[in-house]
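Morning. Coffee machine broken again, so started the prediction first thing and wrote up yesterday's gels while waiting. Chain of 262 residues, entered below exactly as on the submission form.
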Amino acid sequence: ESARRWSGRAATEAQAQGNDRLYVRALRTLGNMVSQIEEPSRATETFVVAATVARRLNDSTMEARALEDLARNQAYTGQISEARALYDDGLAALGDRAQWLQGRLLSGLTDLARREGDMVQAATLCEEALDCLRAAGLRQTAAECEALRGDLARYRGDTVEAERHYREAKLLFDAKGSPIEAEIQCRIVPLLMESGRFEEAQKHMLSILAHPVTGRYGVTPYLARTALLVCAAESGTWSLWDRHVQRLEPLFSCRITDPVIA
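Came back before lunch.
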């Protein structure tokens, strides 16, 4: 809350001083903070102003970054068509500049295509995004994109290929305790459990519990312990079952707000 107030004050001061570049940066920071505390409509208003001011500056990279923020927020609220148009606008503004940002925008389009069930288009966009991201050395977004390739493979029923992509994603960005790393591990675990590798699945879940994730992904411990219950039951280790049930009880009232996790 204090960080949000600071960002709001910074935006107000930058606007008063006529420093449009600082104003856009402060607005983007403020918008992302507001979005994280579940106020997407307010975040949308902030991102729209940021994109408008950035366009006036005739700075294609700054404009594209503001459009990316706005597109991501629109996608989060289910406005897929609007989000796609914004990502396209960002790419058009960039042209052949800022390869790292092109990759991020293409990654966003990949996710939209996946959510709409167009797996052929998603696969094409994902390959283009990965080429840009790897060339630019943007490891975190490349890992997210690689994980998306895993999702696409799993959708096709190719669990071996899916697991390969998930593990590649984990190698690209293996930052303990990060939301991205936790999400990737959560994608690997069902494949391990489906193939009867419960001991390995348990190791992944225990790793998540050892590095708890906060914020919008704070329900991850709940998911981890639920998976551990299944592993304990399948392996017949009922003492572990009892232990995980006891630790799950305080989490039963957890309010899941992220639609993806829900």
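The two ends are 25 Å apart (CA to CA). Going to sketch it on the whiteboard this afternoon.
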